[in-house]
Here is the input.
Amino acid sequence: MAQKNWGFCDLSVSRDCDITKISCLQKLGLNTVAINTHVEEISDEPKKKKRKGETKEKKDFVPNPVDIPKDLNKGDINILQRVTIEFSESSISHKFNHSENLRKYDIIAVIPKTLQAFQYACSSLDVDIITFDPQTRLPFKVSRKLYNQAVERGLFFELMYSPAIKDSTARRNIISMAHSYFAVGKSNNIIISSGADNYHYIRGVHDVINLGFIFGMNSNQSLDSIRNNTRRLIIKAEGRRCGRHYLVVTHDKEKVKHKE
Here is the structure.
């Protein structure tokens, strides 16, 4: 996975989009796309007494990733699976550990709904991205200490631009969040994604880089947000799934042809 040319990335495209048309994003300059599955926060159901001889069904709170046609995986665009999970309490780690479907995703993102959840995500939770809902203003203040703690652990903070195109409230919230990240962490470890549920709201690479200036980034940071930082994130996510040390074995077609 680390050997691939990830190029320019959009790491949040909704699974509601027509997957069969995803190759059209190459025209916008994108090389890698992550299909996002959003999981809303679910309140714990009260425990029921188990009857004698009754088998308990295990319900996975994370759905299966979207099916990707095999011919698309052979194309020039890299397709990854991402899940974004809302949570309010540190007890989410118990659900993470018991979810089989969660292991099927390449990238794990979380939306902390409370200060306690944000603290836990920055300090302990084994995920890749911390993001937020653009439709609602963050109910807590991001501190410099927690931000830097997350950066040291290799986590990335996400800014989405597609909601800003559709809604003025979301636009204000996103710009406010971006300036907050600049104030507390100098916009380190930022990635910019579309967060789009429709291909019409995805913009070309150069347009996204220009958006970085509105988000308080310089030219290098804007470029990194969709190329270098996203590549680091993908490799870090692979390390989380496989362990700190892993071996990538690839099939060299040219050598095989030469031997024949």
User: Anything to note?
Assistant: Residues 8 and 227 are 5 Å apart (CA to CA). The two ends are 27 Å apart (CA to CA).
